[in-house]
C-alpha cells in the first residue's frame, strides 16, 4: 500500500474542514429562530420544519424535523441530530420533548377524527396509528374485546404504510384507498373491523382525513404500524397483547409524580 497519497488525501481533508469551520465562524449570522430555520433549510432544502423553541441546552434551539428532534446552535452554525440527556437527573430530554409534541398534536384532533373502540368509561385511552393490511395491526384488533375489558379505549388514526401516492405513478396507493373506503362507509367501526380482518372493501369516496392523519403521523415520528401512543405522548411500541398493554400503561402511571 502506498502511504504518501493517503497522507496527502488526509491533509487535504483536514485543510478543507479547517476552511469550512473558519468560514462558518467568521460568517456573520443572525441569532435565533431565523438563523436556525435558515441552517436547517441549507442542510435539507424543502424539509418540513416544525416548531422551533429554545433547547434545554444553553445556546441551542430544538426543532422538529421529519419526526425527529434536532438541535441547532443559536447562530445556525452547528446542527446535531441525536439524543440529549440531562446527566445529573438521568433524563432523556429528547424523549420528553417528543412526548410533549405528540401530546399536543393529538389533543388538537377532534373526537370525530378517530375510529374508537372502547368501554363506556375507560380508565386508559391510547391512540393507534394503523394500516389495514398490517399483520400485527390485525392481531391487535382481533383482541379488541379483551383490550376494552381491561378498561382501555383504542382510538385509531389511519397511517397507510405505502403512503398516499405511489411512486413514480403518482396514483393513490391501495392502502390509502382502502382507508378512505372505511372512513366513507356508513358504519365506520363495522367497516374497519371487516377490512382489517381481510374482507374486500367496496370502494367509497368522500371528504376524509386519511391524508392529513398520515402526515400528522410523519410529523410526530410514526414510522411503522401499529404505533401505540399513550395519553401523555409516550410511544408504547408496536403490537402489545392486552395484558402487556395494561401493564405498560400502569407502569407509566407508577412513574408519574404522586404515582
CATH fold descriptor of the largest domain: Glutaredoxin
CATH C-level of the largest domain: Alpha Beta
Helix-strand sequence: HHEEEEEEHEEHHEHHHEEH
Principal-axis shape equals globular
Strand content: 15-25%
User: Based on DSSP secondary structure assignment, what is the total number of beta strands?
Assistant: 11
How many separate domains?
2
Low-confidence stretches: 1-29
Distance between the termini: 64 Å
Strand numbers in spatial order across the main sheet: 7-9-8-10-11
- The number of helices is 9
CATH architecture identity of the largest domain = 3-Layer(aba) Sandwich
Mean pLDDT: 88
Spatial extent as radius of gyration:
23 Å
Helix content estimate: 40-55%
Q: Can you tell me about this structure?
A:
This protein is of the alpha+beta class. It has two domains: 28-95, Nuclear Transport Factor 2, Chain: A, CATH 3.10.450.70; 110-255, 3-Layer(aba) Sandwich (Glutaredoxin). Helices cover 41% and strands 19% of the residues. A five-stranded mixed sheet has the order 7-9-8-10-11, with helices on both faces. A four-stranded antiparallel sheet has the order 1-2-3-4, with helices on both faces. It has a two-stranded antiparallel ribbon with strand order 5-6. Helix 6 packs antiparallel against helix 7. The radius of gyration is 23 Å and the shape is globular. The protein starts with a helix and ends with a helix. 26% of the residues are buried. The model is unreliable at 1-29 (pLDDT under 50).
Amino acid at each position: 500500500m502506498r502511504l504518501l497519497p493517503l497522507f496527502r488525501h488526509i491533509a487535504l481533508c483536514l485543510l478543507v474542514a479547517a476552511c469550512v469551520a473558519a468560514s462558518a465562524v467568521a460568517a456573520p449570522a443572525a441569532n435565533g429562530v431565523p438563523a436556525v430555520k435558515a441552517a436547517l433549510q441549507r442542510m435539507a432544502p424543502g424539509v418540513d420544519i416544525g416548531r422551533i423553541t429554545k433547547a434545554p441546552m444553553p445556546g441551542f434551539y430544538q426543532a422538529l424535523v421529519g419526526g425527529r428532534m434536532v438541535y441547532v446552535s443559536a447562530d445556525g452554525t452547528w446542527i446535531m441530530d441525536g439524543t440529549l440527556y440531562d446527566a445529573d437527573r438521568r433524563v432523556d430530554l429528547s424523549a420528553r420533548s417528543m412526548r410533549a409534541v405528540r401530546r399536543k398534536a393529538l389533543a388538537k384532533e377532534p373526537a370525530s377524527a378517530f375510529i374508537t373502540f372502547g368501554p363506556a368509561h375507560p380508565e386508559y385511552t391510547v391512540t393507534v396509528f394503523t394500516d389495514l393490511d398490517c399483520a400485527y395491526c390485525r392481531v391487535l384488533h382481533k383482541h379488541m374485546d379483551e383490550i376494552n375489558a381491561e378498561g382501555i379505549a383504542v382510538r385509531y388514526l389511519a397511517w397507510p404504510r405505502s403512503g398516499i401516492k405511489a411512486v413514480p405513478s403518482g396514483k393513490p396507493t391501495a392502502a390509502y384507498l382502502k382507508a378512505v373506503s372505511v372512513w366513507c362507509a356508513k358504519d365506520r367501526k363495522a367497516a374497519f373491523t371487516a377490512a382489517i380482518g381481510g374482507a374486500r372493501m367496496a370502494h367509497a369516496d368522500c371528504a376524509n382525513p386519511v391524508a392529513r392523519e398520515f402526515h400528522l403521523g410523519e410529523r410526530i415520528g410514526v414510522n411503522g404500524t401499529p404505533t401505540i401512543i399513550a395519553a401523555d405522548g409516550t410511544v408504547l411500541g408496536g403490537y402489545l397483547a392486552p395484558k402487556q398493554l395494561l401493564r405498560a400503561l400502569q407502569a407509566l402511571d407508577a412513574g408519574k409524580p404522586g404515582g
